[in-house]
Amino acid sequence: MPICLKKDKNIEEREFKLELDDSLTGYKHHVFVIVGARLVQVYTRRDTGLIMAALASSEGKGTTGAVDPSWPAFYGDLHRKYIRELGKKTESYEYQVTEHLRLSGVYWGFTAMALLKAETEMEPESVVEWVLQGYRTVVIAGSSQPGTKVMGGGWGGNIGHDVHLLYTTSAVQILAICNALDRLSKEQVTAIVHLISSLQQEDGSFAGDKWLEIDTRFSYCALLTLSILPDIELNDVIDLPAANAFVASCKNFDGGYGCVPGAESHAGQIFCCVAALSIGGALDSIDRDQLGWWLCERQCDSGGLNGRPEKQADVCYSWWVLSAMAILGRLDWIDKEALIGFILRCQNEEDGGIADRPGDEADIFHTFFGFCGLSFLGFFERSGLDHMAVDPTFAMPVDTVERLKLKCQSYFTARTIKSEDA
């Protein structure tokens, strides 16, 4: 049964005859494709990858060309001002209601500025001191020796808040970007490792904290944090094969992944699973063509991406979708021009920042992920804007990943250090 993409009525239909090599049998066969900008009929799913690549070439997608004059300008100065002033608006409604995730907000803002090569405007030393101030120790297990305790360490969403794996990850990422991991003592690093290893369950999954919520987000956070910490080998501190197996068990019939086995495929969870398998060295468990197809189908008529079928486009999926596609080597399977235009239309041209969709209020979450999307799409290079690329596996600037010599399986090529073969 043919697989069909949506037709663009503004483009005259054409017929392509593609000759494909069958690497298994050695035979060549022909596939006829009726194509507009986005109309394809493919007679075997196995051929999808080759055909999408051919169409990307024939339609001019995936190329690095001139800036489209129809795009809005990129308001870099306004965005930097917007991010700098967020921490000063302590009496605002937005500041008060985001108290519980302040650490993640600092990560989004600081990393966004790092991608613009403007992190010095954020007073890095003050940021590092604030992060270190939030470190807490917790009792994570009993001991066979009466009166002894095993201590773990980590961060909550704000100073004084309960320790959670999500915010521990954000804290370690900030310290890594600021080249301040050496500000953690050996005892603190050991305690963080103890915390994370204690959260792994018998089936290989990870809980977020002592209340034992299970989610593939936490699998990613665990592997990411441990891979960043100095002198830590994953196999020495967690059951890595079990961790990979749990993530792989969350795969659905459509090629996507959910938060637990059997849960609905969602782009955010797909990123977490793909990146976790990338770090865990198990990327070969993914059907790159099937998942790449699901991800490229997230592009809406507006040019933006959604997180699952029949939902509105949202700028944040410029990260969740594109990061997974970058790791899988499938970035050319979407209309890059349309997505760039969508992200730029979501900017606040008066006060700076990027919203979820055009006309909505900007926030730091969507601003950061909007920058990431523009980075993956090659917008900054095409515009001649100074920037630092973002790494799709580690969610940090590429120069940080290179400095720390972090390794993973990936088809992403915007780093100078070679990834392990995927």
Q: Which runs of at least 5 residues are low in confidence (pLDDT < 50)? A: 1-50, 53-64, 415-422
Q: Structural class of the helix and strand makeup?
A: mainly alpha
Distance between the termini: 31 Å
Strand content: 5-15%
Report helical residue fraction: 40-55%
CATH architecture of the largest domain, by name, is Alpha/alpha barrel
Query: Mind describing the biggest β-sheet?
Result: 2 strands, antiparallel
- Total count of helical runs of at least 4 residues: 17
CATH class label of the largest domain = Mainly Alpha
The gyration radius over C-alpha positions equals 22 Å
Order of helices and strands: EEEEHHHHHEEHHHHHHHHHHHH
Shape: globular
CATH topology of the largest domain, anyone? Glycosyltransferase
Mean pLDDT, to the nearest integer, reads: 85
Strand order of the largest sheet: 1-4
| Whole-number count of domains | 2
How many β-strands, per DSSP? 6
Structure commentary:
This protein has a two-stranded antiparallel ribbon with strand order 1-4. It has a two-stranded antiparallel sheet with strand order 2-3. The protein contains 17 helices and six strands. The protein is mainly alpha-helical. The model is unreliable at 1-50, 53-64 and 415-422 (pLDDT under 50). 41% of the residues lie in helices and 7% in strands. β5 and β6 (150-154) form a beta hairpin. It has two domains: 1-59, no CATH class; 60-404, Glycosyltransferase, CATH 1.50.10.
